[in-house]
Structures are given as C-alpha cells and as structure tokens.
Hints:
Elements: H1 9-16, H2 31-65, H3 70-73, E1 77-82, H4 87-104, H5 108-115, E2 125-129, H6 137-147, E3 150-154, H7 158-166, H8 173-178, E4 187-191, H9 197-224, H10 235-239, E5 244-247
Helix pairs in contact: 4-9
Amino acid sequence: MNQPPAPSGWQLYAxxxxxxxxxxxxxxxxxxxTNTLKQRILYYIRIFVIxxxxxxxxxxxxxxxxxxxxxxxxxxxxxxxxxxHTATSDRLVRIMLEKKSNDRSSSRTTMMAQxxxxxxxxxxxxKTYGHRGxxxxxxxxxxxxxxxxxxxxxxxxxxxRLQQALQPKDTSRSSRQSxxxxxQDALTVLVSTGRNPIPIGRYFQPSLxxxxxxxxxxxxxxxLATPIDANTADPQALLTPVWYTTTE
Length: 248
C-alpha cells in the first residue's frame, strides 16, 4: 500500500498558519521594530564602551605600578647557597661574587644602559647564604619559596663526582659507561615563581640563568688550563664540568 508523500514546506506553513495572530506580528520593515532595534544597538554600544574603559583603567594602573621596576629589583638579593663546602664550590662562589663586584664597579653610563634593557642580567644583587638549617636540596627549595626571590645552589658531592670523573681510568667501553658524569647535577637554580610574575620574568629569572651560565663557562676555562690527562678523563667532565637545572 503506497503512503502519501510528505508535505512540503509551504504546505506545512499553510497547515500551521493561524491568521488570527497576524495582527500582532511585526515585520522587519515595521517602524516600531526599527526603533526597538536602534535602542538595543545603542545599549550594547554603551555597555561595550563602559567595559572597555574599565579594562583600560585596570591595565593602566597595573602597568603604571610596574614602571621603572629595575630601581626596585636592584634592592633585592639573590642568594648563593654552597652545600658542598669544597675547593670546587669555593671557586664557583668566588667566580659569582667577582662577577657581581665587577658589574657593580662599572661606570655609571654602563649601568644606565643596563637599566634600559628589557631584562638586564645583573640588576639584582648577589650574596652568599650560610645555609643555616638547610641540609638537603629540598630544604633549600622550601626556604626559597618562603623567603627569597631565587638562589643558585651548589649541590652536595660536586667535587667528589667531578674528581672521580677526571681520574685516570681504564679506557675500555664498559668502564667509561660506568662512570658517566652528569654536569647538570652541579648546580640547581631555584626560582620563587609564586611571587610577582613581572619582576620574576623580566629580572630575576634572567639574572639566575645568566649567572649560572657565566659560572659554568668560567669554571670550564679554569679547568681546561689545569693539567689533566684528556685521554683518560670523562669528556663530559673535562669540557663541561658544571651546568645547572632549574627548579620552581
């Protein structure tokens, strides 16, 4: 048995159309509808203008407070925490402090030029921390999170690992694999990211990275000038004895 075809759109309209409601319908060309549409558009424009003014006001106040932040960052200290207390760690501490002293003794013109940079690497000051009550790396992390902007930690056991990697040893492949040296275990850069993100990103984080890289390069140059049997020493420990990892 054949079923009747489905009704088309106009047929459905004719079926559902109720003429008694035509008097209350408003067409797009109706003047009443046009006036209402203009009022709603003007209302949304006013809301957009008000929200835009509020947004720009908040941004102006926020970034106005951040203006010339370098003058405030220079009064803050980044710490050098020596957990190893050996000749190697003492040299690394001296390298960092001497770099700080050289930067502070530069001319006023150079310092003003550094202030104009987006992230001058030597704006914050540096000093050593006696690690009172800091016995592990986790203690240092907790201390920096609570009290400091950032710090460079000379990890415990650095000199022992480095000397073991530089000692003359069997050149067999298996022996070399067993004494693999990881330079990233030397230093740990700690950043207190829970503080104001603008000075952290613009001043303190670049300062920590730049100082750690400078200390690594200077110590590598010092070690290359020391008589070491390059044929038996670990290549990683010989060429890059010190590097760092970053922890937030």
